[in-house]
């Protein structure tokens, strides 16, 4: 079975843990904010990647990293052997916009990873000013993740077969 390690990084309170829980179908619901300390690792399996029952399976590790830069000394250890990075930010917060470049530089450019192994997610919390149609994470997140995985998996398969 293939193993794929994907990091979720970005500013504090951007929705990394909510997104990680949702994608991995974790039972942890959405409640009051609990800052992630260091990292949480969530695992989930996709038994057949191409939709047929005979396809190869894949085990995903989602590394839900803290947005607090006090954990910066741990970042090299978190990044080791990762196949993809998802940067999540809240586009309504100017402080988050300023931070994106730093997260991209540290987690994508310095590894280095290809841009096709990186996904930038602008995550609006429900109830924000432009939320007229009440589109939520439930609709946006799986599509974005599948886009990222579609990029990462061929690269991973290539490295396995070499
Ligand atoms: N209802 C709802 N609340 C959200 C959503 N995204 C973030 N939140 C709220 O924002 C808080 C912070 O999100 P969290 O994922 O913990 O942030 P991070 O892990 O620090 O990036 C959560 O405790 C939720 O209350 C969402 O899609 N739906
Ligand atoms: Mg968190």
UniProtKB/TrEMBL annotation:
It holds the Pfam family Roc. Keywords: GTP-binding, Nucleotide-binding. The keyword Lipid biosynthesis does not apply. InterPro entries: P-loop_NTPase (IPR027417). It comes from the Eukaryota. Belongs to the small GTPase superfamily. Rab family. This is Intraflagellar transport protein 22 homolog isoform X3. It comes from Apteryx mantelli.
């Amino acid at each position: 079975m293939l193993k794929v390690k994907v990091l979720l990084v970005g500013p504090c309170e951007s929705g990394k843990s909510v997104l990680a829980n949702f994608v991995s179908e974790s039972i942890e619901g959405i409640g009051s904010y609990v800052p992630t300390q260091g990292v949480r690792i969530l695992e989930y399996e996709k038994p057949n990647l191409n939709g047929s029952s005979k396809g190869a399976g894949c085990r995903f590790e989602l590394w839900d990293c803290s947005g607090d830069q006090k954990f910066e000394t741990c970042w090299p250890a978190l990044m080791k052997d990762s196949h993809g990075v998802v940067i999540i930010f809240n586009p309504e917060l100017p402080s988050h916009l300023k931070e994106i470049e730093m997260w991209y530089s540290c987690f994508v450019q310095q590894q280095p990873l290809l841009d096709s192994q990186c996904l930038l997610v602008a995550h609006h919390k429900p109830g924000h000013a432009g939320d007229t149609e009440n589109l939520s994470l439930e609709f946006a997140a799986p599509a974005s993740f599948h886009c990222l995985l579609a990029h990462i998996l061929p690269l991973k398969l290539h490295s396995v077969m070499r």
